[in-house]
Amino acid sequence: MGKLVVAKILVADPLAEDGIERLRKAGEVTVVSKLAEDELIRRIPDFDALVVRSETRVTASVIEAGRKLRVVGRAGVGVDNIDVTAATRRGILVVNAPRGNIVAAAEHTIALLFALARWVPQADASVKRGEWARSKFVGTEIRGKTLGVIGLGNVGSEVAKRAHGLEMDVVAYDPVVSVERAELFNVELVSLGELLERADFVTVHVPLVDSNRNLIGEKELSGMKSTARLINTARGGIVDEVALHTALVSGRIAAAALDVFEKEPPGESPLLALPNLIATPHVGASTTEAQVSVAFDVAEEVAAVLAGDLPRFAVNAPALPPEEMAYLRPFAGLTERLAALHAQLFGGRVSAIELDCEGELAEHDVTLLVASAVKGVLQPFTEERINAVNARLIAGNRGIKLVERRSRSHSSYASLVTLRMQDHEIAGTVLMGEPRAVRIDSFRVDLVPDGRFLVSRHEDRPGVVGKVGSILGEYDVNIASMQVGRDAPRGNAMMILAVDDRVAPDVLGRLREVGGMSDLRYVELGSDADG
Q: Does 8-100+289-306 match 102-279 in CATH topology?
């Protein structure tokens, strides 16, 4: 009978005792905090698991030295201090604890909401200066007011539930949450503009991804009520701090509360000198209960991996067998591009993603393709790394139903992927290792989904194509290739133009005014669209 091998776990940052106790049930635990990188590199070869918070940096060098490492756990949400790419390359799972501090963050938001409504910090400071200026701190009641929640994810939905308990009306803006999920929280989904126009209090709960940087800027602040109050407990950089300063000084909005700043600590930020700004030092998740919760949650995740199970909150995907990955990788890339193309062409809220896999592809486990479809749709709206492990969870959290079908081939292609959302579908295949879109709704196409494109739907009549080409030439936009298809003579047509240059909004405006044009979209896909 072989000797029982006990997993060895290194905890390199302070962790709540509940988490330590859970880890001890999974293996032999060593707790050593504040290790320099060279000391961590020296120690890590003996360990199967590494658990950190935000202090310890798990660099590529640490990963490479961890010859026995199977999992790295982060007690918290962000994994900026972990080289996830290096871990993935080595087949090491990275797990985190994204749910442990949700309640803490939601409650801090509500605390700031009350503080803004009643000028609590300002009144406290005044009394401690020996003043008794009651008339200076006339507040506003929360009951009956409208709360606008930007981002109806984990924290935003918890804030919405608490706001209802305060007898507030709640509206929300979230481009990737379904109406059905919003209804679960008794929340009305509206556009960002309508939310800002209606809300008495606005609270931000979206990740800092490129599409959300300076999401609340001068234009958005000018669309708010002059009596409105703004709260940000999400990430610095989502609210334009220069524009916010101007809005607070001018009285464009009444007040704001920030737990996060673009630069932390904010140093000499002029915002801190304003009497109508409340600031806290990024403490939204800092409660005793939250620290215990994230410690226990990450311990559960690490224990699952060491036991050979799949964790709930993996940041990266487990490695597939090399031969399976070699076959599936081009189809996964194709599916992600088709999903991104679909999202940019048709937009709108997604309640279901349907994926049909035909032919030889249907003989394989297509979980990776489902994850790729979810990633193509949702990645621009989240900082979570979407992969085969967490895609279904992320989609489910946004109320998106995933439907996967496999069948024998019904076409002339050996393998075909068809992606269907919102009554529109795009089909594609892989030819000689190259991804190709072969159908958009009823229009047959032959498109390598990489680069910049203009996609128009228009009446099939003389002059439309020529006018489009003339306008692009006028603005020095070079056309690389063109495809035109139609459903019938003088019927409906689709044109796909591959272009070498980004197309500015004013050019798109001119193109959409061309006679017979029913819809025109500018699409950027893949690496060729960067830069």
A: yes
